[in-house]
Every structure is written in structure tokens, then in C-alpha cells.
Specification:
Length: 298
């Protein structure tokens, strides 16, 4: 029973999202976190096209709290935001009384057209700007509520309305506005706890991706988005999904992936069908992860 509880706790901890800015990826090198503050991508760094990997060493007390931290390597412009964040982290007890290494990768975010953008927190006082791209890293239910669309002029009133809609849905989601210097248009990034489904059905089984892959009956391949081909965007889009008792995909949550590839991957995944999973002879809902790979042949 205790082992099962530990495994469940581990799954919950791994599923957390901590509100990092778009373009920020954190690796704790095997150590698990109870909670931490998000890491912001400094606007000045995106403006100057600064990206790279920051490595930090953190010393933990007997309860897993960070009591000291230092930056080992990384661009100077990105060190401060990492150091400020890690000093408030709390690891699980199995990582306590030790020095741990944390790596934070900063990659300048891109809009849906593949161009790099400058990401800043949304401000209701900013002047109107045309929306060039909208990235909702969350459930379809949230996406349906968003009051702005590509081509709209993002006024102060719409900014306020957008923030309110997102916060009313889940206060853990954040709105960031990116500005494409080439076009002057806005790219909106809505991010939050998208590594777990909006709701996991009671009694659903969590099954590993490799095991569940063997149960696929209908697997629709995604189309390679033309906008992704031009800048040669490749990569893997990772989702967590809920499979219904009838084997159809009921809920899709994005975990990670290049923004240009997400919509195509999601559209294909909605059409997948699995062989129903039985428990004691009765069909049950399943939670699993799916990787969809996009590779351009040279």
C-alpha cells in the first residue's frame, strides 16, 4: 500500500507545471520537487536574442528546502532569474541533505510563423497591437473561452478581458505577450498546468505510453504544417490524454512541443482510436501520454 502511495505521489509531482515563461525548460536531474516558483525569461534577454543553458547548484536542508544556491555556468543575463527562483524551491525528502544540480535551458520563443518574439507579461496599459499568433497551452475548454483571435487589435480592454477569462478559468495559468520585431504583431502565449488533464475521471487507469501504444486501432498521421517546413521546425509534441471506455480520445492536454507543430499534432490525435481497456471484464477510462514526432527528411 505504501509503495502504491509513493508511486501515485511521484506521478502527481511529475505532472506539475510551475508557471515558467515560454522558452524556459527546467531539468532537476532526477530530483523531484514539492513546489517551486516559475522562472521568467528576462525581456531584455529576448530583445538581445540571448539564449543558452544556466547550471545551478543548490544545497538542501533536512526537509528538502533550498538553503543556499550558486550559479556554475550560463549567460550572465540569464543567471539572476534562475538564482532568484531556485532559492525558494522545495524538493522531496529523498533529495534532502545534499547538493543538487539544476539546469535551466532558455530558448527564445517563436510565434506561429516561426519567427522569434520578445515575451513580456501582459499589461493592460500597453497600446493596441494586432494579434499575429495565439498559443493556448491548455485544454480545449479554455481555448474556447479566449475572447481574442488572430487579426484582432489587442486593446487595453481586450487585454483586461483576456486576463480575467484566463484567471477565472484557473489562476495558475498566465498570459504573456510576445512582439515580433519584424512585423510588429503580437504573439500571445497562455501557459499553465497543462501537463495534466483538466479532470481525470474517477476510476481511470494510468497506463504507460509504450503499453498503451500496442492498443492503437486507428492512428492518423499529422500533416506537416507548411509554416513549419519553411524554417525547418522539427521536434516532438508530447500530450497527456484521456481515452474513453469506447477507445476514443476524450481529452487532450499539451505537455510540451514546438508551437508550430502543436495544432497539427492535436488535430490528428483527436482521430485516434484505441482498443478498449478492460478491468475485471469491464471497460474503463485510461490516462496515458503520447509523443508525436515531426522530422524533415534532408
Amino acid at each position: 500500500m505504501r509503495t502504491a502511495l509513493i508511486l501515485v505521489l511521484a506521478c502527481v509531482l511529475q505532472a506539475q507545471d510551475f508557471g515558467d515563461s515560454p522558452g524556459v525548460a527546467v531539468e532537476t536531474n532526477g530530483a523531484r520537487l514539492m513546489h517551486r516558483s516559475g522562472i521568467a525569461y528576462p525581456p531584455e534577454a529576448t530583445l538581445n536574442r540571448i539564449q543558452g543553458v544556466v547550471t545551478a547548484q543548490v544545497r538542501l536542508d533536512a526537509r528538502g528546502n533550498v538553503v543556499d544556491a550558486s550559479i556554475v555556468s550560463g549567460p550572465d543575463e540569464l543567471r539572476k532569474t534562475v538564482l532568484q527562483s531556485v532559492l525558494g524551491w522545495h524538493f522531496t525528502s529523498d533529495a534532502a541533505n545534499a547538493v543538487r544540480t539544476v539546469t535551466v535551458t532558455f530558448t527564445i520563443p517563436t510565434g506561429l510563423d516561426g519567427r522569434q518574439v520578445i515575451v513580456r507579461p501582459a499589461s493592460p496599459d500597453a497600446p493596441p497591437i494586432e494579434i499575429g499568433a495565439l498559443n493556448v497551452m491548455g485544454p480545449d475548454e479554455l481555448a474556447a473561452r479566449i475572447p481574442v483571435h488572430v487579426g484582432d487589435m489587442l486593446t487595453s480592454e481586450l487585454r483586461s478581458s483576456l486576463n480575467k477569462v484566463v484567471q477565472d478559468y484557473d489562476e495558475h495559468f498566465t498570459v504573456n505577450i510576445g512582439t515580433d520585431k519584424a512585423t510588429g504583431k503580437a504573439s500571445i502565449f497562455i501557459t499553465g498546468p497543462y501537463s495534466r488533464p483538466a479532470s481525470v475521471p474517477a476510476g481511470a487507469l494510468r497506463i504507460g505510453a509504450n503499453v498503451q501504444e500496442a492498443n492503437i486501432v486507428t492512428k492518423v498521421a499529422p500533416e506537416y504544417p507548411p509554416l513549419a517546413k519553411a524554417p525547418r521546425v522539427q521536434g516532438t509534441v508530447k500530450f497527456e490524454i484521456v481515452i474513453g471506455k469506447d477507445g476514443t480520445v476524450q481529452n487532450i492536454q499539451l505537455i510540451s512541443g514546438p508551437p508550430l507543430l502543436i495544432q497539427s499534432a492535436m488535430s490528428a490525435l483527436r482521430q485516434w482510436v484505441y482498443r478498449p481497456t478492460l478491468l475485471n471484464g469491464q471497460p474503463v477510462e485510461v490516462v496515458t501520454t503520447v509523443d508525436i514526432n515531426f522530422t524533415l527528411v534532408q
